[in-house]
């Protein structure tokens, strides 16, 4: 990470240096121990997903700098792509069912909350989080299916260089500084492979559990529904050097 001088766009500030130097390095590895799921994305593959999400938000939903995107999703690799996609177009990420949102990204069970968050004029996007990219079945009229819509988007995006607030009303510089401070506090460096079972249910948790890891160039192994016995072995098999 090169520091605050490149921080006009949060996604560009974090991902561009990694794409130049570590494009093929595993960036996020996701496990769900309840169903035996494992998926690993390199830096470039993750960036492609984030870019596709950015293009979905910008081109299909009309999002731009200052658009408020409510995130009602668990800690998941697709959630990470959604967040970085929003930041790439200069939109503001709001964690949870924040009122006054322009767009809400949610799981199917949270569509009623998402409807409340965007009111009568906003857009709701539902994610199945299915490892095979299946759509959400039986969606209400007017709700966009992420899996269907994102796959047709371009995997490159023009970054917004005049972004609005980045996270819960905080500026890009403020959020990036918080991420770098968090990485330092947890002694995380670019050489680390970080294991985490933490949720991203608040802005602070998102900074500590996701952005801080990426901001210093570390690799994240995110585990949902952790099985304690498997988790102990995974520290060895995944070459874990830090645990959150």
Task: Itemize the secondary structure elements and their pairings.
Elements: H1 10-21, E1 26-32, E2 37-42, H2 43-60, E3 68-72, H3 77-88, E4 92-95, E5 103-107, H4 111-118, E6 123-127, E7 144-145, H5 146-150, H6 172-185, E8 193-196, H7 203-215, E9 219-224, H8 228-237, E10 242-243
Helix pairs in contact: 2-3, 6-7
Structure commentary:
It is a single chain. This protein has one domain (4-243): 3-Layer(aba) Sandwich (Rossmann fold), CATH 3.40.50. Helices cover 38% and strands 19% of the residues. It contains 8 helices and 10 strands. A 5-stranded mixed sheet has the order 2-1-9-8-10. Helix 2 packs across helix 3 (77-88) and helix 6 crosses helix 7. The longest helix has 18 residues, at 43-60. The model is unreliable at 1-6 (pLDDT under 50).
Overall shape: it is globular
Strand order of the largest sheet: 2-1-9-8-10
Gyration radius, to the nearest Å?
17 Å
Largest sheet descriptor: 5 strands, mixed
Percent helix, as a range, is 25-40%
Q: Briefly, what is this?
A:
This protein is α/β, with parallel strands linked by helices. It is built from 8 helices and 10 strands. The protein has a single domain, classed as 3-Layer(aba) Sandwich (Rossmann fold), CATH 3.40.50.12780.
């Amino acid at each position: 990470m090169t520091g605050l001088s490149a921080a006009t766009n949060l996604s560009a500030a974090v991902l561009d240096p990694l794409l130049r130097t570590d494009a093929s390095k595993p960036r996020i590895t996701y496990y769900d121990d309840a169903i035996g799921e494992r998926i690993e994305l390199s830096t470039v593959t993750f960036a492609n997903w984030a870019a596709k999400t950015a293009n979905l938000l910008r081109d299909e939903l009309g999002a731009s700098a200052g658009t408020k995107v409510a995130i009602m999703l668990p800690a998941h690799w697709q959630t990470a792509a959604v967040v970085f996609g929003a930041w790439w177009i200069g939109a503001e990420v709001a964690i949870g069912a924040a009122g006054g949102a322009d767009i809400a990204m949610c799981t199917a069970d949270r569509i009623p909350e998402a409807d409340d968050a965007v009111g009568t004029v906003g857009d709701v996007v539902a994610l199945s989080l299915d490892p095979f990219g299946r759509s959400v079945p039986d969606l209400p009229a007017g709700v966009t299916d992420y899996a269907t819509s994102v796959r047709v988007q371009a995997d490159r995006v023009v970054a917004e260089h005049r972004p609005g607030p980045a996270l819960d009303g905080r500026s890009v510089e403020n959020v990036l500084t918080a991420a770098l401070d968090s990485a330092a506090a947890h002694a995380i460096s670019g050489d680390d492979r970080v294991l985490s079972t933490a949720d991203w249910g608040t802005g602070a948790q998102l900074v500590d559990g996701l952005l801080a890891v990426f901001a210093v160039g570390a690799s994240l192994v995110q585990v949902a529904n952790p099985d304690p016995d498997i988790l102990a072995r995974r520290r060895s098999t995944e070459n874990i050097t830090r645990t959150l």
